[in-house]
From TrEMBL:
Gene3D superfamilies named in the record: Winged helix-like DNA-binding domain superfamily/Winged helix DNA-binding domain
UniProt keyword annotations, A-Z: DNA-binding, Transcription, Transcription regulation
Protein name: Winged helix-turn-helix transcriptional regulator
Organism: Actinoplanes sichuanensis
Organism lineage: Bacteria, Bacillati, Actinomycetota, Actinomycetes, Micromonosporales
Domain of life: Bacteria
Pfam families cross-referenced by the UniProt entry: HxlR
Residues covered by the HTH hxlR-type domain: 17-113
Amino acid sequence: MSPVLPLPVTTASRESCEATDVLRLVGEKWTVLVLVILRDGGPSGFNRLDRTVEGLSRRILTRTLRGLEQDGLVSRQITASHVEYAITDLGRSLLPLILAVGEWAVAHAPSIAAARAAYRGDPPA
């Protein structure tokens, strides 16, 4: 199997990698949550999104939505009375992959917790 990145990994090769760019985006704290909310709740105005997620500041919500819109994962529709955000087909196509990682994390949480405990030298439970 050939490596995803040429070795040695340089800063230039890492930064030019499309996967690095997408992983950086989905690794942001609020990105996946906003995508799931828009998928499950349908198109939404900014204020509704703001009220939906406790602990998400308006500034960070704005930044998150702008990033998602910039990458084509969310669309923004401006009307005379408000702005409405919706997940795009591109955003929908990404969600199953992200949710699969979440499902893996839940399924393997006990193994991860045990490995962490063993690493710290905790006695077996």
